[in-house]
Amino acid sequence: AGGAGDPSVGPSTLLHRHAGHERPMALDVGPVTAAFVRCGRRMRGSCLRLGKRLRQAVGRPSREERRRMHGRAGESAEYELFLCDREANVPKRFPPNVYRTSRYNLVSFLPLNLWEQFRRVANFYFLLMTIFQLIPTVTPVNPILTILPFLFILGVTAVKDALEDLARHRADRKVNSKLVHLVTEEGEVVDTQSRELRVGDVIEIRDDEAVPADVVALATTEDEGVCYVDTSNLDGEAGHKTRRAPLLTAPLMDAARLRREVAHGTIICRL
């Protein structure tokens, strides 16, 4: 190792010279740097725990619920649902037919947005620097010179995220308010909003209409129960894909008869 008079060796860089190579062996950190590292780890852990609690507060499923609904990695999941029986499907805890791309609401915007911003390394670093500059014995610099630019950056980013999320809310409301044709218990076809659909409902999809949810074709106007679906907005393929109704329900072309025949039936899906 270098001697005491070697300018290349200092309290923060200790080099080991061997066979003409230099590599760092140790880092002599001071008490302020050590406290900086410990505080950073604690704050990052607190942010992760806060994010977990916020996800639970907004109703996102836990890891155990996702495993139960979608199965473990490499395993197929099985879904059993009842047709035309909403009360029987309630214990299944199926999600509603609500299309949501927004990330925040009025309650969760401030904590979630701050958590997202402080997950970035640069913002987290400047946050710690701002905290340490509030201690008079650490730095003689006026902390206002660091706090004001940092708050300005956080505020501009928050306003930009809020405007983008507001546009997502408007697009979500437009999609969730689209009218779909629901087959009632009496066999009549009535219009309702897409957000009102529930798992097990029977709907009627007409020509050139968008599919409002994940559906199973029970019957079509074709004799063989064939329909053609355009999935270009999902996978980018312009060609139409062929879907066939089950042989058991394909002959039921009338809405009232279809509703009467499949009432309280069961569908088992394996994914």
Mean pLDDT: 76
* Large-scale geometry: elongated
Q: Which quaternary structure do these chains form?
A: single chain
> How big a fraction of the residues is strand?
15-25%
In spatial order, strands of the major sheet run 5-4-6
The sequence of SSEs as H and E is: EEHHEHHHHEEEEHEHE
Q: Structural class of the secondary elements?
A: alpha+beta
Which segments are poorly predicted (pLDDT under 50) over 5 or more consecutive residues?
1-29
Please count the helical segments.
Answer: 8
Any idea what the radius of gyration is? 30 Å
State the total count of DSSP E strands: 9
What distance separates the N and C termini? 63 Å
Descriptive account of the structure:
The chain is an alpha+beta fold and 271 residues long. It is built from eight helices and nine strands. The chain has helices at residues 31-57, 63-70, 86-89, 109-118, 121-133, 144-176, 232-235, 255-262, and strands at residues 14-18, 21-26, 78-82, 179-183, 189-193, 203-204, 226-230, 240-244, 266-270. A three-stranded antiparallel sheet has the order 5-4-6. A two-stranded antiparallel sheet has the order 1-2. Strands 3-9 form a two-stranded antiparallel sheet. Helix 1 (31-57) crosses helix 4.
Key descriptive features of the protein:
271 residues, alpha+beta, three-stranded antiparallel β-sheet, two-stranded antiparallel ribbon
Q: What's the short version?
A:
The protein is an alpha+beta fold.
Question: Layout of helices and strands, plus pairs?
Answer:
Blueprint: E1 14-18, E2 21-26, H1 31-57, H2 63-70, E3 78-82, H3 86-89, H4 109-118, H5 121-133, H6 144-176, E4 179-183, E5 189-193, E6 203-204, E7 226-230, H7 232-235, E8 240-244, H8 255-262, E9 266-270
Antiparallel strand pairs: 1-2, 3-9, 4-5, 4-6, 7-8
Helix pairs in contact: 1-4, 4-6
